[in-house]
Amino acid sequence: MKDRFYQYIHDLQDTITSTLEEIDGKAKFQEDLWKRPEGGGGRTRVIENGDVFEKGGVNISGVHGALPKAMQSYFNVGDVDFFACGLSLVLHPKNPMVPTVHANWRYFEMYDKTGTVVDSWFGGGQDLTPYYLFNQDAKHFHEVCKASCDAHNPDFYTTYKKKCDEYFYNSHREEGRGVGGLFFDYCKATDTMSMQDWYNFVTEVGDSFLDAYVPIAKKRKELPYTKEQRDWQEIRRGRYVEFNLVHDKGTLFGLKTNGRIESILMSLPPHVQWQYDHHPEKGSKEAQLLEVLKNPVDWVPN
Predict the structure, then answer these.
(1) What angle do helix axes 2-24 and 195-220 make, rounded to 10 degrees?
(2) What would the mean pLDDT of 51-68 be, rounded to a whole number?
(3) Residues 151, 155: Cα–Cα separation, whole Å
(4) Residue 259 in this model has a pLDDT that exceeds 80
(5) pLDDT band at residue 140 using 50, 70 and 90 as cut-offs
């Protein structure tokens, strides 16, 4: 399973980066191969200063070895070995009318000292973070997410949308990071879902990413914007940074397993503002976005 999934994300990275380069039309992804001293490594691809994407990363990794003490406590396990692989991407467009997007699909195994697998699971998801809200864009993104889920279980979309709304939430701000999408974790074999079934589901979600995001980026990338709208984008990017550094479990896992810092923190945007006690004008487009972020919206009612 781990070999199949690693090959899957290897191929998916190629598909996604080539498509994004075509959309940008200027910038190309720079590739960086790296090795982890304790075992494994990855292939980082970063795009910067493009016509569409100001900064973005589409990274894959496969790491293994002894599970660090900090993570043993987190998973409530003893002295075990692990293997983890995944694809993680974040795209920060230049135009504030184009939303930031994040996605991640991953697989994890733990072994006892004889090499026997004692636990394994899939996780992942994809979510959208607009700076100016176009309802039809949020609806489109969620429709694609729902279609991927419905092909496997009619309850998946409702369940994993709710988990996404709960997870990507800046509790210290009492607002969502964006308009959500899907978030699933610890997807283990059950009486009704084998690991092969989970593989089929997670890869279908992964395959849907470009369908979910590319039409939005193409539709909005040429829209005009003002300096004030760019300032708002940078202020909201600050909230994105806050979430990733305060709440995100993936960032925490990477830092505690001696992950590659440049790859872990590639999710951070290049230009950000933190204005003191900033509040948008009442009734403005900016204020309307904040109202939506306070309470999750059912973009695609069942």
Answers:
(1) 10
(2) 94
(3) 10
(4) no
(5) very high
Catalytic residue among 10, 64, 92, 102: 102
What is the structure's pLDDT at 123? 97
Instruction: Tell me how far apart the 2 most distant CA atoms of the chain are, in Å.
Output: 63
Please spell the DSSP secondary structure of 254-289, one letter per residue.
HHHTT--HHHHGGGS-SS----TT--PPTTSHHHHH
Task: Give the Å distances, CA to CA, from 76 to 70, 71, 234.
Answer: 10, 8, 39
Predicted confidence at residue 252, as pLDDT, reads: 80
User: How far, in whole angstroms, is CA 36 from its chain's centroid?
Assistant: 22
Closest CA to 178 of 244, 101, 251, 252: 101
Residue 205: pLDDT band with limits 50, 70, 90? very high
What is the pLDDT confidence band of residue 263, given thresholds at 50, 70 and 90? Answer: confident
Question: In sequence order, which ranges of the chain are alpha helices (DSSP H)?
Answer: 2-24, 69-75, 135-150, 156-167, 195-220, 227-246, 249-256, 261-264, 285-294
- Cα dihedral 290, 293, 295, 300 sign: positive
Q: What angle do CA 6, 264, 217 make, to 5 degrees?
A: 80
> Which spans in 57-127 are helix H?
69-75
Confidence band, pLDDT 50/70/90 cuts, at residue 155: very high
The dihedrals phi and psi of 25, each to the nearest 5 degrees, come to 80, -5
Residue in 227, 257, 244 with CA at minimum distance from that of residue 129: 244
With beta carbons less than 8 A apart as the criterion, state whether 188 and 119 touch: yes
User: Is 279 labeled as catalytic in the residue annotation?
Assistant: no
